[in-house]
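Postdoc handover notes: sequence design on the structure in folder B. Input tokens:
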């Protein structure tokens, strides 16, 4: 980098900094003022729903646009409900993904979205004999029993089967207040509807006219006289919320087909606040550990790296704001993780500069050579990690997408700040005459001469034994190994005001047929997680309210996933793993050769199996976030492996006279310091996530912790030795 290039590079960096400050500050809401970054449901509370439009009973010509019409009707309902910044998106042919930030009254929200809102007007039978015959089980032809909304019986009214009019002519529906100031719903009909309504009321004076919504009679008043104006009232002992919601669904119109909730994730405000606090704490602790380490170990160079790291975080925040992305708890984990991985860029450069200084090169030449030689390794290692991030983003959903986006942006930002920003800072100091030498501490003062290949067969046996133990545990646990995301079912997390025993809850649930549910404490002693079959959430919550009192606990989160969706998520996770391995293999073949790619892939398979095995052996469950962590581990591990591969390739190109085994041993020893330092900085932030990130991402953090250790080990003892033992390739 020349003095001339600084004249445009410095203004460019200043412009990028200004843009980042503009888009990122303030990142989060302060004192009621909105922040630039939108928080995910897991941080602010709310609901995530996957709805499926059941078009099975529609004619072929109506199926094509049923989901499109359903999206618009649901959007109208939500807009009138008053949800701030909702998200309604079509997914596939007949699914709709709905996100409702801040909505914690899940029952009301489900009622609002799930009502088909098919409004019908039918006459009530006047014959007591026919009614008695119907309730005895013999419903006469031309009639049907209907449940009355306010009634106690399963079937309260006998209605004529003929529908006199539907709600298609309805133009207005608003909340009103009738007798005794009781809420009701006042409606108006269009011109055609008013004429039909007038004819119906004129021909049936002194008969009861039932107003039926989705098969339930809302009210059945007696017709006192002809109603010519097309106006009417629906009464039914409504609460104000019920009347409001009924008027909303009537105004928005009837759905073209029934809606089925395939997936639900609800997060209460308390858990959201806890997640924010714990995420921020973990981020600050992780950042502080990395900051102090870099400053102490690399001295002035570490100070420059820390400035680049702060710039890196600012770029992540600005990117999230600019692209209107949502910051989720896994997204925070991704940001924290990029702190450790971003330092890797600086470690690679600084260790290269150290080597050049050891050759007694002038400071300017050492800087230039260090950055030049480190660039290829940085590029290769980051591209392979970006491959896994891209696949995560493409295959994942919800929080996993947020994690993948944050990880990808962080990696790109780390390349910019680590290569361009730090270099510009050093060059300014160099040209001003203030940089004569870059002093650094030495983790390994001399390059070790350990014969790593000597112990490779012992390591093979250890790895096979560990993988075998993990596979045995997986087989033994079977379906119990997978969380509700993959098997389908319901997960509920409650926070009780007073400590409660698991057995007390199990006893209560046994009385309603859910005694086999998995019940365990989570994090705090008063937090309880209940895993059971899908559709059990209402019965479980009602039972807890009955036995313990509604005010004695709070629902922190609820995840309800159908078996079909669970199976789809499981297949997606497996495809993501396979595509990641294939993508990395293809890139390593392109950049190196088939033998190197084989060593890399075997090491990655080793890391994945060891990590998943440890998750199983420790009694944890496989979830989407656990698989996201495994994919991230693949990126981290190949990152480490490529550093060694690059050094092996470099020594071969230089024509160093040595055997292939000597080349590998020397390359591993020369890069050992970098391997340890990088793993150490990543471990700093992963341990911070594990200890302080909270229960929600604890499994993710544990998986990362196990994977980082496995990845560091496999880089030295699996990936490199395989190059020697590959059939027909030994030299």
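Designed sequence:
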């Amino acid at each position: 980098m020349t003095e001339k290039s600084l004249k445009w590079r410095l203004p460019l960096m200043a412009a990028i900094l200004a843009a980042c400050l503009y888009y990122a500050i303030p990142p989060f809401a302060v004192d009621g003022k909105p922040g630039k970054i939108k928080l995910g449901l897991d941080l602010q509370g709310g609901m995530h729903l996957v709805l499926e439009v059941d078009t099975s009973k529609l004619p072929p010509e109506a199926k094509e646009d049923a989901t499109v019409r359903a999206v618009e009707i649901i959007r109208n309902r939500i807009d009138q409900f008053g949800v701030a910044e909702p998200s309604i998106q079509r997914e596939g042919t007949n699914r709709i993904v709905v996100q409702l930030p801040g909505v914690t009254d899940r029952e009301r929200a489900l009622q609002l979205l799930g009502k088909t809102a098919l409004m019908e007007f039918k006459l009530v039978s006047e014959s007591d004999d026919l009614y008695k015959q119907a309730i005895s089980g013999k419903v006469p032809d031309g009639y049907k029993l209907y449940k009355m909304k306010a009634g106690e019986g399963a079937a309260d009214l006998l209605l004529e089967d003929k529908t006199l009019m539907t709600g298609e002519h309805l133009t207005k529906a608003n909340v009103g207040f009738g007798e005794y100031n009781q809420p009701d719903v006042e409606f108006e009909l269009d011109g055609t509807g008013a004429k039909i309504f007038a004819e119906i009321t004129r021909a049936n004076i002194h008969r009861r006219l039932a107003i039926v919504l989705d098969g339930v009679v809302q009210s059945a008043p007696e017709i006192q006289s002809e109603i010519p104006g097309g106006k009417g009232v629906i009464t039914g002992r409504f609460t104000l919320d019920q009347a409001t919601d009924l008027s909303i669904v009537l105004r928005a119109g009837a759905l073209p087909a029934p809606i089925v909730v395939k997936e639900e994730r609800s997060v209460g405000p308390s858990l959201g606040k806890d997640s924010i606090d714990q995420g921020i704490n973990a981020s600050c602790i992780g950042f502080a550990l990395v900051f102090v380490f870099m400053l102490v170990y690399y001295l002035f160079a570490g100070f420059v790296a820390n400035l680049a790291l702060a710039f890196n975080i600012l770029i992540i925040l600005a990117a999230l704001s600019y692209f209107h992305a949502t910051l989720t708890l896994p997204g925070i984990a991704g940001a924290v993780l990029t702190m450790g991985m971003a330092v890797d860029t600086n470690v690679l450069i600084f260790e290269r500069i150290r080597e050049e200084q050891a050759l007694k090169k002038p400071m300017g030449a050492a800087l230039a050579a260090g950055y030049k030689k480190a660039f290829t390794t940085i590029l290769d290692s980051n591209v392979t990690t970006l491959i896994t991030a891209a696949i995560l983003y493409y295959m994942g959903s919800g929080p996993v997408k947020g994690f993948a986006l944050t990880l990808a942006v962080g990696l790109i930002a780390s390349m910019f700040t680590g290569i361009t920003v730090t270099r510009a800072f050093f060059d300014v100091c160099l040209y001003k005459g203030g940089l004569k030498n870059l002093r650094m501490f030495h983790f390994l003062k001399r390059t070790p001469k350990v014969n790593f290949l000597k112990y490779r067969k012992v390591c093979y046996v250890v790895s096979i034994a560990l993988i075998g133990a993990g596979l045995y545990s997986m087989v033994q646990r079977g379906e119990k190994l997978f969380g509700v995301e993959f098997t389908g079912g319901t997960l509920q997390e409650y926070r009780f005001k007073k400590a409660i025993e698991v057995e007390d809850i199990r006893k209560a649930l046994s009385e309603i047929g859910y005694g086999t549910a998995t019940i365990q404490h989570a994090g705090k002693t008063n937090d309880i997680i209940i895993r059971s079959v899908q559709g059990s959430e209402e019965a479980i919550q009602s039972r807890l309210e009955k036995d313990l009192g509604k005010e004695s606990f709070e629902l922190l989160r609820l995840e309800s996933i159908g078996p079909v969706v669970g199976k789809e998520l499981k297949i997606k996770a497996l495809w993501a793993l396979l595509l990641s391995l294939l993508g990395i293999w293809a890139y390593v073949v392109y950049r190196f050769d088939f033998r190197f790619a084989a060593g890399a892939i075997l090491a990655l398979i080793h890391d994945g199996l060891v990590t998943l095995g440890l998750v199983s052996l420790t009694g944890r469950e496989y979830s989407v976030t656990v698989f996201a962590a495994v994919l991230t581990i693949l990126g981290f591990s190949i990152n480490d492996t490529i550093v060694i591969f690059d050094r092996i390739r470099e020594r071969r190109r230089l024509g160093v006279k040595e055997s292939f085994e000597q080349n590998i041993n020397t390359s591993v020893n020369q890069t050992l310091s970098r391997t340890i330092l990088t793993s150490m900085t990543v471990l700093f932030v992963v341990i911070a996530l594990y200890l302080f990130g909270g229960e929600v991402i604890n499994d993710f953090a544990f998986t990362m912790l196990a994977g980082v250790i496995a990845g560091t080990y496999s880089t030295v003892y699996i990936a490199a030795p395989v190059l020697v033992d590959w059939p027909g390739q030994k030299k």
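Context for whoever picks this up: DSSP finds 23 helices and 19 strands in the chain. Don't rerun without checking with the PI first.
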